[in-house]
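User: two proteins, same treatment. go.

Assistant:
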Amino acid sequence: MQLHGKHDRHRDFTGHTLSPNPDELTLRATALAVERAEKALKDGQLLTPGEALALAGTSEARKDETLYSIARAVAWETGANPDEVLARLGAAFPEMT
């Protein structure tokens, strides 16, 4: 979203406003999530939300990842805010949102 020529930090697909000064935990969790998303993308196992919806309920979908599933897992493991991790992951992979 753009207002009067200024960009805000709002991520359209999450509705979450990114913190301008993330804490160390968020930065570590985001780095881990980006690493996992890059691997899933390289392995052909990263789905867009539309692809995940189309495959929902199939056994094929269980082996694949979405940005949401990666962010949720990393946040659970690290104790980071899942909304913040997902928004930052979406910013790193806008084509997958």
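Protein 2:
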Amino acid sequence: MKAETNQGGSNMKKVLAVAFALVVALTCFGVYRDRAGYDRSAQGTEVLSEKTAESKVYSFSGSDEVLTVMNGTVILGEDEETFSGGTLQINSGEFFEGVTSYNTTFYILEDGIKKTVMSNSLVDQTGGKVKLNGDDLGKISGADIITEYKTDNTENLINNLYFEINTVGADGESKTHQLRMDVVEIN
């Protein structure tokens, strides 16, 4: 009888050890799904989930002698849409010298009308210069943030997405620069 009790206790220890190991493995290497539909592991890697696989995913960027917008994304899903502006790189410091505030806007040009998708502003209240190079251009998400209100046609998104930056210098001079985005469907 004593041997059976010890064997039962031994089995229980094995079950607890396996359960503990499973919890540790899931904690260290586990995967969770974020709101945008990506599966993210504890190591930070991303894998498209079923939700994103059903969506249309676009990448966009644009560049000229003054600036570059890179790594922008648009995800058009049935229930949620996400617009991420990517990052800004300055190619000509001359245009952005002495900037104390700026406003960035992504818009879709449809029938000659600018339909704002996302706009952000930054003002240095101390009058100092603001840093532009490498700035994250923002992200928004929600139901029908692009398709219902901005355009009914994804061709307009692909062919008519623009970036505009308005700057104000310490001397009060205002400058505006516009850049058409190259949009590519990636799935």
